[in-house]
Amino acid sequence: MVNAALSLYGLITCCLLAIVSSTVWWMLYAWRRPETRSVADGRLQGTSTAAAPSFSLLVPARHEQDVLAATLERLGELDYPDFEVIVVVGHDDLATQQVAYRASASPRANITVVIDNSWPKSKPKALNSGLSSCTKEIVGVFDAEDEVSLDILRQVGPAFAEHGADIVQAGVQLVTFHDRWFSLRNCLEYLFWFRSRIHAHARKGIVPLGGNTVFFRRELLEQYGGWDGECLAEDCEIGIRLCSRGARAVVSYDPRFATREETPASLRAFVRQRTRWSQGYIQVFRRGHWRMLPTRRQRMTTAYILLFPVLQGLAGLFILASVVTIAAVKMPLELAMFTSLPALAQVIVVCLEAAGLAELCRTFYLRCRWYDYLLLVVTAIPYQLVLAFAAARATWREVCGDAGWEKTVHVGAHRAPAAQVLTAPARLEA
Amino acid sequence: MAFVTVVPVTVPATAVAAGERSSLAGRLWARLVANSSTLLTLGPVMVLVGAVQAVNAGDWPAYTNDDPGTYLARAWAVQTGRGAHHSLAPYTYWYDHVPFGWIQIVPITWLGQMFRDGSSANVATREIAVAYTLISALLVFVVARRFGCSVVWSAIATGLFGLSPLAVTYLRQMYIDTIGLPWLLAAFALALSPRRRLWAFAASGAAFAGACLTKETFILWLPALAWLVWLRADPKARRMYLFAWGAVAFVLLVLYPMYAVLKGELLPGKGHVSLIGAIEWQLSQRQSTGSVLTRDSKGYELVASWLEGAEWLWLACAAAIPFTLLRRETRVLLAALGVAVLYVLHPGYLPEMFVIGVVPFAALTVACAGDVVWKLSLFGRGWGQRIWRLGCCAGLVMAGAQFVPSWANADEVAMTSNESAQLFETENWLEHHVPRSATLLVDDNVWIQLVDDGYTPDKVVWFWQLDSDPDVERRYPLRWRDINYVVITDTMRVNVLTSASSIPSVVEAIGHSQLVASFGQGPDAFQIRRVGKALAKVPPVWFPMSEVTRSPKSSSGQGAPE
Question: Cβ separation of B13 and A204 shorter than 8 Å?
């Protein structure tokens, strides 16, 4: 009996070690060898000469009257010859409608407002409503609070022609890392995701897409019926679905053109967002489109990616538990040493996160002090607990069949104060 | 623009057609052909180093130090699981040294069945040491190549490392420095990886941790290695490289204190050994070897013997240092040697085998400087360079004429003479004349040999343990009165002379013993003595009978291999 328990314990440790190892591998993918970068640097030059497809930019907005005006203003100023902006607003959301109509009245930008009548409301349904009004070759998605780079279309446009892409995912970065205690780690997750991990997946031909700054060929979207209106992670879902049908997804990350976003404004909002994503990933797993991927390896990897948020949450919990067990329970020394390995591997993760923080600050011209590094270390365990809670909550909700959409509230903290001053009068004038 | 790194585009990978991959054998053959000049140059040097190191290694030098026996005894304990409760040693492991050295030789002793057949366990330590030395020699070549040296100069580095009389003396003995050296050199080789993959840097960190977990003093090479990693890391992502290297090294190193914590032996306390206690002892209580700058100190004697053992290597190294500054990466050699010199100069305890870690860096310095000088074109290209190189060759031949004969003479002695007969005869006599039920007080070279030959480990007592190991004290409450025989060898004699107060029971045992058999001549003779109640009638000539009393003293103190 004791032996069985110890074996099980060892087995769990092996799984934890595998999970943490895959985390480290994906975190470091972009840095694994220097050549990739030098080659990529060369490719960056002369992008503007390539063919320039036309863009329809979808902006679904819900109760985001405070941030939408500035977003639309900026989208209107994008440096690109041929694009349109389509704002999708719910029929019940009058305040946001008002902001959207005011922006569309401006002669400087080509903005159309589409009213979404679906119920209950969700982002994918809004996107589908907007899709039917798109007229250009490429459909892009932005969120209402996004701080978009003015050159984003100049960067993305050529990727379609040069690499024969059907889908292009560009970078997104959370930048408000001083907001809340969890913001710092949240920002770093985005850094490692868009800077590194998503490239590892793209290389294998599987891209769990992000929610915005993502671009599709319109005909492809129409052919496959747009987004899945009932999925909580519609972004990931469409990525996996299109990839499994043979679409060519290209990831294009350049910090200069990354869309800036803010972290959730409160812990509650953060937990909700995390729950939604984790549950969405489980939903995508259960939908089973990934089973159509051509190779077995791709299928296995995708299944793992989709279950990863839950596994990661649980792994964090187990690792904490293992540390407590080692301290509290008398067990064979060898087993205790072995059990501590995942926790030690987690220490490597924290070190790499510290290196990531330094890079984040240098790349995005953010200010970073020594206590930010301290915060990074101190928040490691609480953050794991929050992730574990969200993962557990997501699993529970999925088991209970509760798939309601919990929206993240945005306040615009990621915008530079100067930008807010500039946009405020514009809002009044319109 | 000051962007750190940019990875703009990742496209899905395209599958490689089966035909495009060549067969493994084909690729191996292609590599062999491509590297034939390396093989033809390095091959003879390695054969020479192998011959000089291996031939007669079992008989020369004498087994004057029982550290190799100690490490092999600990490997035996790990392999057979017969150590003291989860211990890393046949007796209580007391954190005198990090344990990875003897843990890693367990696969070798197990595969080589070194604890089963009738062969000598003492000779086994020499075999293992030679194997490690050959790996080190190969790695010296790799590191030299990766520092930018030509094949010839890299091979010269290997020769300088493995052929000096000093290297033959020290590397043949299975000190943990010898075992840790390949790890240290591998850490440098990986940090110099030409493709600069991140994993190579992480592996470098792991290898460095392996080195420091084998011999703790290798931590002194941390600044040089960290500097090298900094220089070699991708400039756009330096921090990521440094952190990956450092994090892996740190996490592996932490395993050691964690072992102590899990056993409840981190902090000093009553009735158990502790890591902190052992470190304190190593750093402060250990008898200083004195300043190497004052004549007549032990440190001075030791350093003088090091210098004498490889005189020309050290001279060439000193002359070579300025030239290593000409290349960016070889400057770390100065850091490596500088730290070593500072350590030698520090007042306090200087272990005699410390020099093992310094020799490869001296050899590398000479080779790197030689390569720089060889490639200088002071007089332009063409004829000017040819004349320059002719001059270099002449210089080399002249230098060679100075040191090759003396090294060859010393190496010839190492390859032919027998200095270990005393020990082997002693062991042989014991096996034939002393009953297996007897309790013996021995050094660790004899210990592992006797246990290997079937003596009960509990009945054979390493002399240091009688006064310091709680387990042994429990087993032999009467201390020296419980001992039947004491086997006096070089190690025991030296320790009685230098640290009698730490091993009072050993002094008492010898003081109450009568000679049974003696091997060798003069005061250095190995003696087998039966312990009894009466005082020794004819004690060894060097033995301080004044230390012996009628009643056993109680004292504490711990002994350690150096």
Answer: yes
Would you state the structure tokens that stand for residue B416, as one six-digit string? 């032919």
pLDDT in tens, B324-364: 999 999 999 999 999 999 999 988 889 999 999 999 999 99
For an interface test with B, give the residue of A192, A346, A348, A361 to mutate (most B CBs within 10 A). Answer: A348
Asked if B363 contacts B161 with a C-beta cutoff of 8 angstroms, the reply is yes
How many domains does chain B contain in total? 2
Contacts of B262 in chain A (CB under 8 A): 326, 333, 336-337
Query: How many Cβ atoms are within 10 Å of A422's Cβ, its own excluded?
Result: 13
What CATH architecture applies to the domain A55-297?
A: Alpha-Beta Complex (3.90)
Is B455 domain-assigned?
yes
Of B234, B247, B259, the CB nearest to A347: B247
Q: Which of A199, A255, A337 sits opposite B10 (nearest CB)?
A: A199
> Band of the pLDDT at B294, cuts 50, 70, 90?
confident
The CA distance from A20 to the nearest CA of chain B, in Å, is 14
Q: B198, A28: Cβ pair inside 8 Å?
A: yes
Q: What is the pLDDT of residue A23?
A: 93
Q: Are residues B501 and B375 both part of a single domain?
A: no
Instruction: Name the domain boundary from B416, B433, B468.
Output: B416
**Mean pLDDT in residue range B137-150:** 97
Whether residue A429 has pLDDT greater than 50:
no
Q: Name the residue among B86, B199, B246 with its Cβ closest to that of A32.
A: B199
Look at A6-20, B288-302, B525-539 and tell me which has the smallest mean pLDDT: B288-302
**Angle subtended at Cα A422 by Cα A143 and Cα A66, rounded to the nearest 5 degrees:** 40
Shortest CA gap A33–chain B (Å) = 4
For residue A119, the model assigns a pLDDT of 83
pLDDT at residue number A5: 85
Least CB–CB distance from A358: residue in B6, B8, B239: B239
* Confidence category of residue B465, pLDDT binned at 50, 70, 90: confident
Residue at B74 is within a domain? yes
Closest alpha carbon within chain A to B252: A344
User: Residues B121, B448: contact at Cβ < 8 Å?
Assistant: yes
- Least Cα separation, residue A24 to chain B (angstroms): 10
Contact A379, A187 (CB under 8 A): no
Whether B256 and B176 share a structural domain? yes
Residue at B20 is within a domain: no
Q: pLDDT per residue over B73-123, tens digit each?
A: 999 999 988 776 667 888 888 898 999 999 999 999 999 887 776 778 999
Instruction: Answer yes or no: do B318 and B369 share one domain.
Output: yes
d(Cα B561, Cα B298) in Å, to the nearest integer? 17
Please tell me which residue, A413 or B512, carries the higher pLDDT value: B512
Domain for residue B17, yes or no? no
Shared domain check, B373 and B431: no
- Domain end among B370, B395, B416: B416
B66 and B186 together in one domain: yes
Are residues B469 and B482 located together in one domain of the fold?
A: yes
Residues of each domain in chain A carrying CATH 3.90.550.10? 55-297
Ordered strands of the B485-488 beta sheet: B460-462, B440-442, B485-488, B526-531, B513-519
**ipTM for the complex shown:** 0.87
Residue B430: what residue type?
L
DSSP run (H or E) holding B420: none
Ordered DSSP codes for A265-295: SSHHHHHHHHHHHHHHHHHHHHH-GGGGSSS
End-to-end CA distance of chain A: 74
Residue-level pLDDT at A51: 67
Say if residue B476 is in the same domain as residue B535: yes
Range of the domain at B214: 45-271+295-416
Contact A43 B13 (CB under 8 A): no
B395/B252 same-domain check? yes
Pair A284, A233: CB distance under 8 Å: yes
Q: Which residue has the tokens 């948020």?
A: A309
On the question of pLDDT at A154 being above 60, the answer is yes
Cβ contact, residue pair A254, B6, below 8 Å: yes
Q: Confidence band (pLDDT; 50, 70, 90) for A274?
A: very high
Interchain pair A159, B9: CB under 8 A:
yes
